[in-house]
Design brief:
- With about 160 residues, this protein is of the alpha/beta class.
- The protein folds into two domains: about 120 residues, 5'-nuclease (Rossmann fold); about 40 residues, no CATH class.
Amino acid sequence: MIAVLDSNAVIGLAKGECLELIRALFQQVLIPTVVRREVIEEGAGRPGSRELLEALGAWAKEQAPVGKTLDAGMPTVSADDQQVLALAEETSAILVTDDAVLRREAERLGILALGTVETLLLLKRRQALPAVKPVLDLMQARAYHIEPSLYTQALQLAGEKA
C-alpha cells in the first residue's frame, strides 16, 4: 500500500513523535511537493519540519502529481489540496489527513482517507506502537487539536483507559 500524507498529518504525527512509525503501515510514503513546501519551507523551525526533512530520501519520497490537478467541482478545496488529492488518486494511495473538507472530497473521488488517530490505532494493532494514549496526550500538549469524543473513542478502540 501507498500513503500520501497531508501537511496536518505530518505535523500531528511529528507532534506525537511518531511520524517515522508510519512506514510500518505502508510500502511507500509519498509527500506531495506542496506539503514539503508548506511543512519544511514555510514551517521552518516548527513541528514537522525537521522530521519531514529527515524522512525525505530516507523512507519518504517527495512527488508531485503527474497529471493536472483536480479542479473541477471542488470550489472549497485549495489548489494545494487539489494537488494532494491528485497525487493520491494517481497513485491509488491512501490519503492521511485530518482536514474534513479534504477527507470529504477524497471520499467523493473514491480515495480512502485516514485521520491521524485512525493511523495511530492501526499502528497499535500492528504492534508498531505500544499505546495510543501517550501519543494522543503528547499531540494535545503540543497544541494538536483532537476532539474529546474522538479521543475517548480512540482509547476505547485501543483498549486503553483515559
